[in-house]
Write a structure and sequence with these properties.
With 192 residues, chain A is of the alpha+beta class. Chain A is built from 3 helices and 7 strands, in the order ββαβααββββ. With 190 residues, chain B is α+β, with helices and mostly antiparallel strands. Classes of the chains: A alpha+beta (192), B alpha+beta (190).
């Protein structure tokens, strides 16, 4: 893996529509900018990017947990996304995200029974990438459906890929649309 | 005394390993801390606004400490800095200028930081925050800028106030000029 940079952000909301949020919501997103080894030509075998996905799942998951200053077990929701520069193809994002990224990410946040919500797109430098978020152990927990935007002014270049992992220590600031709550979730089947 | 009402805060750390050249032994770090605060003057003209600078000082101080922390905790490692503010559409450019004193005060041991102000930014507006060497403005290797923005701020009655710090020069700096090693550090310039 040829890594050019990592950008990690922690976002805290203290006030929403005049309501004090105590403790504040806290969400982290870590993004790696890597060279795309398959840029410019069609390759049938994408194993190299799948292996890179495994490395990044652990690395970026740990960056988020560290930046939040929490224990892995305190992580509440997670998500992943990739944006491929113009000389690559959408399948490169899929190779990074789907086969191998999940297991090391789950190790970094402890458990993680739920599917890791994901999104992918082609894009250019400075473009916004929205990383979806869902509860890590029970996908139906409605208070934790969310998304966090990432934007890096100098990435991805044409031969690069941006890979993001987001981890939170909270749900949305003022959840009140019902559904399964985090407290009531069993977290065994990944759904409820 | 006006209350400083913080809606949200964020800290970003960028670790740069290379930019097409040799991979650095120690990645260069660039950090940003920002707070989205209520603009107490939004929506009308207020003549006397300078007291708010004093009110903002504790926030500035805390932001500087948090950013140093995110960059590893050692103030001696910070080599470059800058600050900026962005005012939501209900405010005026002059409100952004209020960040000069508290933003600078918070980071300054030696000299004024550089500053950028964007008037009338809306949610999603980006601002380029200038970065200079913290001890001598003419150090060419440390001139840089960091783009900052939030998709949900500033709203019309808000301001986004920002501090940035770096742990070193541009990753592959080779454009000559005064070198950090040659700084005398007496006048803040050289």
């Amino acid at each position: 893996m040829k890594l050019r940079k990592i950008v990690t952000t922690v976002d805290e909301i203290h006030l929403e529509m005049g309501q004090t949020i105590a403790p504040p919501t806290r969400r982290a997103v870590a993004t790696a900018v890597i060279e795309n080894p398959f840029a410019g030509a069609y390759h049938d075998d994408l194993t190299e990017l799948m292996d890179t996905g495994a490395e990044l799942g652990g690395l970026l998951g740990q960056k988020c947990v560290e930046a939040l200053g929490i224990t892995p077990a305190q992580a509440e929701s997670y998500g992943k996304a990739a944006m491929v520069g113009e000389n690559g193809e959408l399948e490169h994002a899929a190779a990074l995200l789907h086969p191998k990224l999940g297991a090391p990410l789950r190790a970094a946040v402890e458990k993680g029974a739920a599917l890791v919500p994901s999104s992918k797109k082609m894009g250019s430098m400075g473009q916004a990438l929205d990383v979806p978020l869902g509860h890590k152990d029970a996908a139906y927990v409605r208070s934790h459906f969310d998304g966090i935007e990432v934007r890096i002014n100098d990435a991805p270049r044409a031969n690069e890929i941006m890979v993001s992992v987001a981890v939170t220590a909270s749900g949305r600031p003022l959840p009140r649309v019902g559904g399964l709550t985090a407290d009531d979730a069993k977290g065994e089947d990944g759904l409820r | 005394m006006l209350d400083v009402i913080v809606r949200k805060r964020f800290v970003t750390v960028e670790e740069i390993f290379h930019d097409g050249g040799p991979i650095a032994a120690q990645p260069a770090l660039r950090g940003v801390v920002g707070a989205v605060i209520h603009n107490p003057f939004a929506g009308r003209y207020v003549e006397e606004i300078t007291d708010f600078m004093e009110d903002l000082k504790p926030l500035g101080k805390q932001m500087a400490l948090d950013l140093i922390d995110a960059l590893g905790g050692d103030p001696a490692r910070i080599e470059g800095y800058g600050k900026a503010s962005m005012v939501g559409e209900g405010g005026e450019l002059e409100h952004g200028a209020l960040w000069h004193a508290p933003g600078g005060y918070s980071m300054r041991e030696t000299l004024p930081a550089s500053n950028a102000i964007v008037p009338s930014g809306g949610p999603g507006t980006r601002i380029d925050v200038p970065v200079t060497h913290s001890n001598a403005s003419y150090v060419r290797s440390h001139f840089d800028s960091i783009e900052v923005g939030l998709n949900d701020a500033p709203k019309a009655d808000e301001m986004l106030v920002i501090l940035v710090m770096t742990t070193g020069p541009r990753i592959h700096n080779r454009a000559g000029g005064l070198a950090a090693a040659d700084v005398t550090g007496k006048d803040g310039l050289r």
